[in-house]
Amino acid sequence: TPTIKLSGKNAANSRADALVVALTGPEVELVPGALPADLAQALAAIARRLDLGGRADEVRTIPAPQGVTADLLVFTGTGETTGPEALRRAIGAAVASLAASESVVVAVPGKDVAAVAACAEGALLGAYRYVDYLGSGKASAKTGPAAITIATGLAKDAAAKDALDRAVIVAEAVNGTRDLVNCPPNDLYPERFAELAGTLAAQHGVKVSVTDDEALRSRGYGGLTAVGQGSSRGPRLVRLEYSPTGRRGRKSPALPHIALVGKGITFDSGGLSLKPGDSMKTMKLDMAGAAAVLHTIVATARLGLPVKVTAWLCLAENMPSGTAQRPSDVITVFGGKTVEVLNTDAEGRLVLADGLVGAAAEQLDAIIDIATLTGAQMVALGNRVSAVMANDDDLRAELVAAADTTGEQFWPMPLPSELRASMDSAVADIANIGDRFGGMLVAGLFLAEFIGEKEEGGRLPWAHLDIAGPSFNESGRHGYTPKGGTGVGVRTMLGLIEHRA
Ligand code: BES
Ligand code: MN
Ligand code: ZN
């Protein structure tokens, strides 16, 4: 992570390599904020002469004009609004474009803490680059800004400082998720993922326990066992726990307890129901849910939020081999339900069934799973909008609202009970595939079968996030979103936890 700080000095006098200023359209104005009014007007006049429109994703860099000390001036468009997400995207796009600059100063448009937070988050998310596997020459050429200054009149304000600290934690969680998703699957397999989770958790006071392949088999985790058995690298179930300590602000009622369950298929070949080669090319992304869950619980701990969180990473590699599960095998998942596996490529729901049953065995207020579960998600909502399904209208609405306020796009989707019959099996409690139409909803209905009752009776509020498309950006960079892993889901889940806190 680059270093980042607030500064109350005039941004135009900063000695940074580049100064970033935001333009709004369609009038092409510089939102007043960290720059003196006369300079802001002069820069806006230059922007108009350059024919800039202040449009979202419009970035233009010029040698700094009179009155600006930095070497370069970067104009970045916010579009017609200056809400937090417009600022995050504009500042993120600007910082992402500055591969050759060491230091950047961002003139915050606006005078409130929300604008400071959005600029800091946008800058840190935009500065992300995945360079772990580049040769040393290439890596250093692409490193990008190491020092970011956020120029604002609120530099001495306690709330602005807190907002900056939160922005760093959030951005490190999102960027850490991106790193895991981008990591090639020859180097990231279940055992390795579990080790990385253990190291990270230990650094932040999060408890970890790992169940290995032998223990999974003997304890009846039939979903993880079946999906993992085709690979030479066995499955793992990781349970993480964050229990707030210290400043115990409230004793009664007891702290809320949320469980997060993530799909962690480190590579999805489809198994014996093998995917065509083209569909396999991006299948290292299939652990994006587990990565998001890991980094969400770590961010929760770092923020010290007064919510108990347990996180479950369902890790396996889905491979074809002589030991792989066969279409028509019947497996018994954790808790005793039987599943007829008619398609080994519908594996995510099998590992999640184990995780959901395990998670729901504890006293909980809500359980949320997140998964790159279906190609049908992309058919329905495309690559930028994720889906939320739930057995509880309030929880679904709360997640959509958390996405809205944190800058992610999640859209509510139904779980129509009529589709359940399409998964009826002649030989088991349920089959792992059903109607092809509405495939995302069918997968959601499958998961719903594994949500138990609360101990005191009544059903446990549960929501399912399908991030198949949005987890991985196959096209060009946009806003603060790089190519490859996006880190989607972290901000929404963290937003929900903050809302409960
Ligand atoms: N991991 C895939 C879903 C996926 C597809 C994620 C494309 C991201 C991009 C999942 O395991 C899968 O293969 N689902 C099947 C289910 C089908 C066999 C019922 C699918 O969607 O085709
Ligand atoms: Mn699959
Ligand atoms: Zn999968």
Report the major sheet. 8 strands, mixed
Present as ligands are: ligand BES, manganese (II) ion, zinc ion
Instruction: Provide the gyration radius in Å.
Output: 24 Å
Poorly predicted regions are none
Structure overview:
There is one protein chain. The two termini are 27 Å apart. The strands form 4 sheets. The protein has an 8-stranded mixed beta sheet, sandwiched between helices. Strands 1, 2, 3, 4, 5, 6 and 7 form a 7-stranded mixed beta sheet that branches. A 3-stranded mixed beta sheet has the order 12-13-17, covered by helices on one side. By secondary structure, it is α/β, with parallel strands linked by helices. Helix content is 35%, strand content 21%. The structure holds ligand BES, manganese (II) ion and zinc ion. Manganese (II) ion binds next to loops. Ligand BES binds next to helix 12.
Distinctive features:
501 residues, alpha/beta, eight-stranded mixed beta sheet, 21% strand, elongated, binds ligand BES, binds manganese (II) ion, binds zinc ion
Could you write a compact summary of the structure shown?
The protein is α/β, with parallel strands linked by helices and 501 residues long. 35% of the residues lie in helices and 21% in strands. It is elongated and about 80 Å long.
List the helices and strands and how they pair.
Elements: E1 3-7, E2 18-24, E3 29-30, H1 37-49, E4 59-63, E5 72-77, H2 84-96, E6 103-107, H3 113-126, H4 136-141, E7 147-151, H5 158-182, H6 190-203, E8 207-211, H7 213-218, H8 222-228, E9 236-242, E10 257-268, H9 277-280, H10 288-303, E11 308-318, E12 329-332, E13 338-341, H11 348-360, E14 366-371, H12 375-381, E15 386-390, H13 393-406, E16 410-412, E17 430-431, H14 439-448, E18 462-466, E19 472-473, E20 484-485, H15 490-500
Parallel strand pairs: 1-7, 2-5, 2-6, 6-7, 10-11, 10-14, 13-17, 14-18, 15-16
Antiparallel strand pairs: 2-3, 4-5, 8-9, 9-11, 12-13, 15-18, 19-20
Helix pairs in contact: 2-3, 3-5, 5-10, 8-11, 10-15, 13-15
The protein binds ligand BES, manganese (II) ion and zinc ion.
